[in-house]
Amino acid sequence: MLNTSQIRTFLTVAQTLSYIRAAELLYTTQPVVSYQIKALETELGVTLFNRTHRSVELTTAGSYFYQQVEPLMRQLETIVQTMQSMNDQTPKLINLLVRRLADYAKLTQIIKNYSESCPLVHVNILTQEDRGSRQLLVTGEVEIAFCYQFEVENDPKLKFLPLMESQYYVLVSKTHPLAAYKYLTFDDLTGQKLILANTELHRNPRLITRAQLKAKKIAVQTIYTSFDSMLIAVQSGIGFTILPCSRSKKFSGLLKIPLKDVKPVPLGIAWYSARTTPELESFIALAEKQNAEQPPALV
């Protein structure tokens, strides 16, 4: 009857085309390798290798057997590793930070695929707080962040994979003078009051600089310490704010008007390049696969 030791020996010889090298890789001796191959050939009733004094090559039957068995052996090894890890008393965990206001459809599909392929790893989803994505990634408090590119692009230690793009919108109350516009440009905002929150979302030089604000006579209103406080201030009608977000996102009591003269901002996953783990690498690989099937687009 076939056994995994014989098959592993066969695969090693087929990959190295050397009984001596196979013996070294398997930490055994050449006579043992020869015995295992001979026993396998006897069991199958075919010759797997043509062997001369100088060379080893697969026969037609050997090539067919290799093509059929090699993927099955890899699958078996994965199953064995998974079963063995079930005895690990320390559960594996990935902390995933998610940015507000985003379209999560692509991200949730990645999480679903990851949970199916890595059932022993728990993806712990954390919502964005006042501290930015860059800080939490660098300190190791989260392993991966779903964030805007501008939050992490100035740090060479952080890697970023774009998954989609978000358009910028002006948010105003329904009674604000800007509420009559179907779309806006920065020129339309001249003389208006801009309300911000003290979060990384608004420290974005790609959006507009302080010099540009001054040139367009856009006054920066009180910078609030929280995102929710900012939205309440906007809802009161004293000013407007600017946010990148998905087209489907709605804000209670506020109108969302496209800001046309700003390029969409990439949104994706970021991680600390020197602190990757096998679990994190698997997550990134699934995200890259998802990108290949569904390239980044405006959401």
Description:
There is one protein chain. The chain is α/β, with parallel strands linked by helices. Helices cover 37% and strands 23% of the residues. The chain contains nine helices and eleven strands. The protein has helices at residues 4-16, 19-25, 30-44, 60-85, 105-117, 133-138, 210-215, 227-235, 278-293; strands at residues 49-51, 56-58, 92-98, 121-127, 144-148, 158-173, 193-197, 219-224, 241-245, 254-258, 265-272. Strands 3, 4, 5, 6, 9, 10 and 11 form a seven-stranded mixed sheet that branches. α1 crosses α2 (19-25), α1 crosses α3 and α5 crosses α9 (278-293). The protein is elongated, with a radius of gyration of 29 Å. The two termini are 57 Å apart. The mean pLDDT is 87.
Summarize this structure as a short list of keywords or feature phrases.
299 residues; alpha/beta; 9 helices; 11 strands
Strand content: 15-25%
Mean pLDDT: 87
Radius of gyration: 29 Å
Q: How far apart lie the N and C ends? A: 57 Å
Largest sheet: 7 strands, mixed
Shape: elongated
Number of alpha- plus pi-helical segments: 9
Which parts are unreliable, with pLDDT below 50 for 5 consecutive residues or more? Answer: none
Order of helices and strands: HHHEEHEHEHEEEHEHEEEH
- Tell me the helix content: 25-40%
Question: Which structural class is indicated by helix and strand composition?
Answer: alpha/beta
SS elements, strand count: 11
Structure summarized in a few sentences:
By secondary structure, the chain is α/β, with parallel strands linked by helices.
List the helices and strands and how they pair.
Blueprint: H1 4-16, H2 19-25, H3 30-44, E1 49-51, E2 56-58, H4 60-85, E3 92-98, H5 105-117, E4 121-127, H6 133-138, E5 144-148, E6 158-173, E7 193-197, H7 210-215, E8 219-224, H8 227-235, E9 241-245, E10 254-258, E11 265-272, H9 278-293
Parallel strand pairs: 3-4, 3-5, 7-8
Antiparallel strand pairs: 1-2, 5-11, 6-9, 6-10, 6-11
Helix pairs in contact: 1-2, 1-3, 1-4, 2-3, 5-9
